[in-house]
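[Q] Does anyone have a clean structure-token version of this?
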Amino acid sequence: MPRTLARQCAGTHGGSDETGRKVTSYLSRFRRQQLACLISAFALLAAPLRLRSQVTPFPIAPDRADSANPPKTGSIRGMVLDKDGAAIPNAKVVLTEPSFKTEAQSAGDGTFTFQNVPAAPYDLSYSAPGFADQHQTGTIQPGENDTISPVHLVVATTVEVNVTQTREEIAQEQIHIEEKQRLFGVVPNYFVTYTPDAVPLNTRQKFHLGWKFAFDPVSIGMAGAIAGIEQANNSYSGYGQGMQGYAKRFGASYADFVAGTFFGNVIFPALLKQDPRYFYKGTGSRKSRFFYAIANAVICKGDNGHWQPNYSNVLGSLAAGGLSNLYYPASDRNGAGLTFENAMIGVGGSAAAAVFQEFFSKKLTPHARDRQASQ
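[A] Here you go.
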């Protein structure tokens, strides 16, 4: 179109050269302006595309998200060694927190790791066969990877102490119990044991029990009461009456008691190794218990734990009866007759006492009842 326009202009004006050059110059400037406009338009269109390809995502966004939800757990790593620094594999490690507990085992190199541990104070306990247990404490912070110092376990030392009492010590404890036995809480009831397998007494313990029984104030008072009855009945009239007669009767009564106690319960049991105590049965029919009690006048337990003839009681009664000939009035000394008479009285009295022990004494002895209730 510009070229056609130039030709028309040239024809109209008679083909003047000057006019043609002006038109040509005008057309050239017009083309350059169009080309410049097109280049500028393409440049404007391409610029946003170039800028967009060069922009990278802003790195702060992820950090802002992490700061909004910080981690609430951490990890703990440690090592279990012996005192020489060698690794202890397969050691049990228990992690305990107020609301969290887990456990792990140490690896071959002694290391262990706990992951996702809630942030809180913790306690670590270590145990391994042959080593003493150990503890370690600390606090884990949110997001913290805590590497704790190695723990050194020491070899466990087990000391076994077998504390065994001797037979004498056990017997002494049983004597202490028997020394508290009193009928109605008053009258001594020492020579009976309510322990079926009571330990035999040694010589010293037999003398101790006999001495305490014979010289107990209640025993002395009972001898005085018997002397008073004999005084009232004028028994052994050779003693006479009045205070002198009562003193003689009291001396004889108490001498019989002491002699019977020491000969029958101390001296002969110590020499013949027999137990002077009555072993309470408490089981079986009444008939079996009655005959058991009667038999104890002539049988007893030996210090070896076996039943055997009660030589101590029989010989003790004879010795006490023979000794009584020295202080009874001459008119009442019947020689051997009095001796055997007193011996039979002593054996019969032992049988009656055994029946009383089997059926009645335990009920009348507060300490024995309390001990049975506690057992």
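[Q] Thanks! Anything notable?
[A] Confidence is low (pLDDT under 50) at residues 1-15, 49-65.
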